[in-house]
Input
Amino acid sequence: MLDLLWLIPALPFAGFLLLTLAGRLPRAVIAGIGCGTVGVGAIFSLLLCHRFLTAPPPDHAFTQSLWTWFDVAGLAPGIAFHLDALSLVMISVITGVGFLIHVYSAEYMRDDEGFQRFFAFLNLFVGFMLVLVLADNFVLLLLGWEGVGLCSYLLIGFWYREPANGAAARKAFVVTRIGDTALLLGLFLLFASLGTLHFQEAFAAASLAWEPGSGLAVAAALLILGGAVGKSAQLPLQTWLPDAMAGPTPVSALIHAATMVTAGVYLIARCHVLFELAPAVLLVVAIVGAATLLTAGFSALVQHDIKRVLAYSTISQLGYMFLALGVGAWSAAMFHFVTHALFKALLFLAAGALILALHHEQDMRKMGGLRHKLPAVFWTFLIGSVSLAALPLIGSGFYSKEKILWDVWISPLGGPAFWAVGVAGAVVTALYTFRMVFLVFFGESRGARVEHRPGPAVLAVLVILAVFSTFAGGIELPHTFGHVTFFSDFLDTALASLVVLPPGLDAELWALLLVASALVLAGAGVAWWLYGKRTQTSDTMGAAPPRDPLLRFWFAGWGFDAVYDTLLVRPYQFLARRNRRDLVDLGPVFIAALARGLHTLLSETQTGRLRWYASVLVAGTLVLLLLAFAQ
Amino acid sequence: MTAADFQALLPFMCVAAAAVIVMLVISFYRNQTLSAILTLAGLLVALASLPIAWSHAPRAIPPLLRVDSFALVHLALLLVGTVAVTVFSQRYLEKYRMERGEFYILLLLSALGALILAAADHFVAFFLGLELLSVSLYVMVGYIFVKEKALEAAVKYLFLAGLTSALLLFGLALIYAALGSMEFSALAAAVAGAPDGLSPFLVAGMLLVFAGAAFKLSVVPFHLWTPDIYQGAPAPVTAFLATVSKGCVVAVLLRFFAPLDPASQTGLFSALAAVAGASMIVGNLLALLQDNLKRILAYSSIAHFGYILVAFLAGGENGPAAATFYLVTYFAATLIAFGVIGYLSPTDQEADTVADYRGLFWRRPGSAALLSIAIFSLLGLPLTAGFMGKFFLVAAGAAAGLWPLLIILTVSATLGIFYYLRIIIAMYSGEGRKSEGRTADAPFAPTSATVLVLLAVLLIVIGIAPEPLLAFIQAATTLAP
Output
């Protein structure tokens, strides 16, 4: 069973090759290949989970070496897959949620002329993502890391005839590239100082070679953090994710909510040994997470485009995961990753069904009153919203977010300040989530007409995700009620948590829980008071961007785009323009001109005249004879 | 002649017999397809007889031929090239209302000449093979005489080939005057007997022999005919000219010059190095802004044989193997290119300007993909066979310390990327504008499609895993000094 691990990433790659090379296929076959390869992977992942739970392999990990990729100067990365609790959780979510999104796409993209291209890219993405999380060394991880970046680029710009989509794709690629460069430098540093890029060997060597808090450890952890920040759209590299919503909605759900953007979380969790050697960097991780979750939450509050709300919400939720990582609560971060993948995929897919029903209308100011017209979408979206807003007891988001908040409170690396930021973020989350629900589904209709109802595949996927995102919280319940530690026990086999619950804190934790829950409920209540109680008209909803300066600031994502534009993009473009005919270019320009000139000169010899040809032939022979005898 | 001799000569006999059979059949029953099938059958039987001949190698067939593993590897390559040309010709000739059966007799005879050259061990075999190859080619170049420029090309080729044959004969006469023998082995004996320099007669003779052969390779300064004849000849004949008629000459030159040690023959080898360097530079520069695809390929072939001469000059253990390996990759890519050109040419003219190929990908993605693979291999993109070919050439050259030539190779090959990419860009631009370019709409015949796809797969496979082929060629092409 374990020996078939390689099949899980191999299948989507095979699907990609088949879809690329086989020429035009009927749509049913395309959908079959696309969904089938990922679906079989999902079944394999489930079987692997079962195997890990019933009869875990030695050390709760399994490594499969396929072959050595290359062997140069001591660097011999293998094509080898490492399966432990962490990667098992990742592949289960990637293949499971991925499969559901593939099925959804089969209906969502039905009328698109790029149907085959879409599934080819989607399969390629899943393959690279699986390589990323299964890699047993940094080099193979980097292959998956860059591969998913490429797929993200291809899929954001999927409708490439619209120039704005191409711009969004380029922005996503360039901004994440900054992080990728940091990661690459980090890998160089690791290889230069440790001599290996194999995960387990590198971590073992680092623990021996580096003092906690030593310069090299801090530098390595910071550079890896740079990569994670870029991929997971955290401050200050978060600006690409809202624009990435230009891609088809299933892409937003799969890549820009459930899987790829969590690669940064996975990377930090995978390298937790390095981060533990650099406590200062862990603090940076927590600060980045806290700042991101709050700023992105405020931005989500004022957006009009439903997908942009969800995009900012994703950034904010990833901020929670970073906050958890920063205080060493690895399993809390991964738990939130699982629940977030489920409910955010659900929200995106429900929003996609909505957008398709309204004929590609994404502006919430034109929606309203849709709960009667699209009841199934309403109920599933509501279930996802309850989870996202972490309403007490119902929905999985509550359990994962509370676990993060508790761990932040009790962790030696955390503290009340971080807890307060997390709770404030939770209030904002409840506020923007229910603003969205009330604007879209309640009140009077404000223009957009329902032209199309979701079909069976879309509804089935929504219902399945709704069920999962409601009950997935059950795998880990707070010890104050229920006390299920199934998930964290499982993850602890791979990631020993830094956060240990001291005994006798029950009363304190109850108090925290009650305070947080009350504030979240208050946030939802305010949303109802602002947007649900009063009937909104599209005129009262305000302009885009809003007139109020603070709201406008939030609307524009805290002005990061403008700052980057002024500080980096414009000066760079200015320099590039001014530098067009510079000294450096002279060399190549000269060579080109020389080649051109010589070409013209030599072309004169091609006269087409036989007597000239014969004369050159004889003269050439004579020259050769002279050359031979001149020596 | 013993039975073993007979078996060693089977490949030659099969091709000769096929020529006779085709001639006899068309005097009773004229059918282009039948002639093509018989030709193909003869060539395939010859290919199948190679293992039999292999079991008797090395075997000298005194005094003319020597069937050893080196010859057999080249025989295989030449036969495969001829098979591809036959398949392309069948479809190409169908478009013309004229007597077409004789074409295959000429093709078979020409191929036989090429085979003899690859196994020649004697001046007479050398000359006979070269003439058999050339005389048939004169007619093949002008075979479709209704076409523009066909007769012009044929006459030019006839005249210049005649001139260089005279140079070759004179060279052979000089060598005979110096050695008193017409066997290649006599040359080896003379070199071994005179460590401090050969007689001037011998050096001049060898250089003239080289000149005669170099005309076929179209290296500088014997290159001027190439674009005119490539352009004027029918595309399948151009394919034959560009591959088989050059490959066999490389084989005979490798064998002829094998006894010489570059270090002691500085004069002769500096002349050859000048030819190699000039060919690489001139070939690539001439192709640079050319707008005619067949002329681009003609100019680039000048450069390609400049590259091969580097391996030829390197000599030693790696030289012949690197040259042979490069020939394999060059054959496959060039055959695909001319095969596709022949296919896409409408009846009245050749589809040979770059403009004809604008937007090809959007009209005929399959043809564009094949042509792209061929061009990527010719320009030496990694993961294609062409890259490995260049890599082994450079390795052989570096082992022999030919640094100036290697620098020229690198720089001029970089220039080459420009004109190859122009073709690629043309093929993939202009989406949706279907009416551009004069390319035929007819689908590929299954035989041609099979041959083209197999060649393309070969290019990719060699590009990814060159080791088995290289090991085989290295083992087979070691020439005793």
Notes: Chain B has two domains: 1-147+225-260, 261-481. Chain B touches chain A at residues 155-156, 159-160, 163-164, 167, 200, 203-204, 207-208, 210-211, 215, 220-222, 224-225, 227-228, 266-268, 270-271, 274-275, 282, 285-286, 288-289, 415, 418 (CB under 8 Å).
